[in-house]
Amino acid sequence: MMAEHTVKAFDAEITSLRGLIAEMGGLAEMAINESIQALAKGSLSMAEAVIARDARLDKLEAEVDRLAIRIIALRAPVADDLREVIAALKIAGILERIGDYAKNIAKRVSRIEERTRFEPLTLIPAMAEMAADMVHDVMTAYAARDAALAVEVIERDAKVDAFYDSIFRNMVSFMVENPSTITSAAHLLFVARNIERIGDHATNVAEQVYFAATAEYLADRTERPMN
Hints:
Elements: H1 2-41, H2 44-75, H3 79-107, H4 124-144, H5 147-177, H6 182-214, H7 218-223
Helix pairs in contact: 1-2, 1-3, 1-4, 2-3, 3-6, 4-5, 4-6, 5-6
């Protein structure tokens, strides 16, 4: 009876841990989408809401840390269960950083002047959509322990990087042609860089999902000779 109770308690803790990670993923994705909407619309109120909500992500990360440490200390998980807990710990930190990047984007909304003059601004939402989709899909992979989807998300990061390079070239040309816009354009370059980093962090989550699902690191997988 005691063993059965212990197993049920452990299962409940793992379920809670996964629920916290899922909530963090949802908040991170929302922060990306709303920060870009705020940027496109010039909505300071929406930007302020993104900034204020970031505190919830910080709190959830702390909850994940506490719960994961409790599980390790009291349950001494091994094999699949230990990978699950370690992956959750790492993923929580990554999602918190994604929230920070979205917050940084929101903070720049008030610094973009004469936004109607910025043709490059029309490219940023498309890039952000790609990055947000990566976050959404990697959280789907996490929920399903879908290693194949995790790999697919990682492969998509190259498109986000290429988009960033295109925006960078476009923005530099725009600044050369319109010197009066340099300050605002520089802020938009930082926005694009933040989006590129979000894509990088989505790949980091995907690597943890892959490890939790397969007990292999992607680097080990790719370094093996083909049969």
